[in-house]
């Protein structure tokens, strides 16, 4: 049998162990509390610095906070990838009305001129000619698709012909982002990255990005840039809508977390297929009825196209419940993905533009249950081994 003294010693030992563990727990809790307090302090410092920067910027441009477009229009802004470039989450190709409604991102391309020699004489939107406003705009352009990439890369040591032509048409000294549209399989990746680095070093662009590149090609460009001390891409322009999800929802989030490449998406309405106008076939004077769009007409009238239109009718019911149009629902659905820095819009009229902009007001209505209901209708949600989306 244990003696009284040995039992007392055992109790003391156990009590000592318990108190020691309690002290450690208290110390860990205190450390966690200190860490949380420090994180909160840093957040407050960062917020104060951002507010100070905003106040300085507005003062420099003689604009009050109440006049600030984000305050008056409800437009939301996101960083382009992990760069410091902050863009409106909606971007456009027509300017003045869009700018007045909070859009600061305008996407152009060399190919949009389609080789028209008179493009140099086209009128430039007046907001580009206002010097104090240029700093509030984010102008992007795409090259290579409308030109000869081999020739361009051969002369990049002097200047990039495609970008210089775009700057001349826009009457700008620089663009914020220049996109390499479609990679050239016949050109070594190092030459492409060196060409993009060159135009940035020459002051013709602030950043460069990719358009219609695979994740493997983007990763190769990043690796080459790091290997040779060059400038890597910050963003990929990718097609993204309810019927095209894999790249933006699985591949690009992985690249964002690994190397900071963001996503700027285009065609949220799938070239108009999601507009609702094709639910009963191809109406006269619609895009799909035009010469050169036979591929689109065939797609709409195919078996898969008919299935898509049936799904859109179900989604139309959700849009009506939320008090919005189908295009607004489709654009808001793209915006609900926080991995998307900006969604590029196309509008052929001011009414269409204002309808699209109203998608910002629909975004808060997309609860997790609504998104789940939409995913159930679409039946095409992509999955990866790891979910990188926040």
TrEMBL record:
Q: Which residues form the signal peptide?
A: none
Domain NADP-dependent oxidoreductase per the UniProt entry, residue ranges: 92-377
Question: Which BP terms from GO are recorded?
Answer: regulation of action potential; regulation of potassium ion transmembrane transport
Per its UniProt record, what InterPro entries does this chain match? K_chnl_volt-dep_bsu_KCNAB, K_chnl_volt-dep_bsu_KCNAB-rel, K_chnl_volt-dep_bsu_KCNAB1, NAD(P)_OxRdtase_dom_sf, NADP_OxRdtase_dom
Q: Where does the UniProt annotation locate this protein?
A: Cell membrane; Cytoplasm
Return the PANTHER family for the record.
Answer: HYPERKINETIC, ISOFORM M (PTHR43150), VOLTAGE-GATED POTASSIUM CHANNEL SUBUNIT BETA-2 (PTHR43150:SF1)
Stated name of the protein: Voltage-gated potassium channel subunit beta-1
Organism, per UniProt?
Oncorhynchus kisutch (Coho salmon)
* Gene name tied to this protein: KCNAB2
């Amino acid at each position: 049998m244990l003696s009284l003294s040995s039992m007392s010693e055992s109790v003391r030992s156990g009590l000592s162990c318990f108190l020691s563990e309690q002290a450690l727990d208290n110390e860990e809790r205190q450390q966690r509390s200190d860490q949380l307090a420090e994180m909160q302090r840093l957040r407050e410092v960062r917020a104060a610095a951002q507010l100070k920067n905003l106040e300085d910027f507005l003062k420099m441009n003689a604009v009050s906070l109440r006049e600030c477009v984000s305050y008056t229009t409800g437009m939301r802004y996101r960083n382009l990838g992990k760069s410091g470039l902050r863009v409106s989450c909606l971007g456009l190709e027509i300017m003045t009305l869009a700018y007045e409604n909070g859009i600061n991102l305008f996407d152009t391309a060399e190919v949009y001129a389609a080789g028209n020699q008179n493009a140099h004489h086209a009128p430039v939107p007046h907001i580009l000619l206002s010097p104090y406003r240029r700093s509030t705009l984010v102008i992007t352009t795409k090259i290579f698709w409308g030109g000869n990439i081999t020739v361009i890369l051969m002369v990049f040591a002097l200047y990039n012909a495609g970008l210089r032509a775009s700057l001349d048409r826009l009457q700008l000294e620089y663009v914020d982002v220049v996109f390499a549209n479609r990679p050239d399989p016949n050109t070594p990746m190092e030459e492409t990255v060196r060409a993009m680095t060159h135009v940035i070093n020459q002051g013709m662009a602030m950043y460069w990005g990719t358009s219609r590149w695979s994740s493997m090609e983007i990763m190769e460009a990043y690796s080459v840039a790091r290997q040779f001390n060059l400038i890597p891409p910050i963003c990929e322009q990718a097609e993204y809508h309810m019927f095209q999800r894999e790249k933006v929802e699985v591949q690009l989030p992985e690249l964002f977390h690994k190397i900071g490449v963001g996503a700027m998406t285009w065609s949220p309405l799938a070239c108009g297929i999601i507009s609702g106008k094709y639910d009963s076939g191809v109406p006269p004077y619609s895009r799909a009825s035009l010469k050169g769009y036979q591929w689109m007409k065939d797609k709409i009238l195919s078996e898969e196209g008919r299935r898509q239109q049936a799904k859109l009718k179900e989604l139309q019911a959700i849009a009506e419940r939320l008090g919005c149009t189908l295009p607004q629902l489709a654009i808001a659905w793209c915006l609900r993905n926080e991995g998307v820095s900006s969604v590029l819009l196309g509008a052929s009229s001011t009414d269409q533009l204002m309808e699209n902009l109203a998608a910002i007001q629909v975004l808060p209505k997309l609860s997790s249950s609504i998104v789940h209901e939409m995913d159930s209708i679409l039946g095409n949600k992509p999955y990866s081994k790891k979910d990188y989306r926040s």
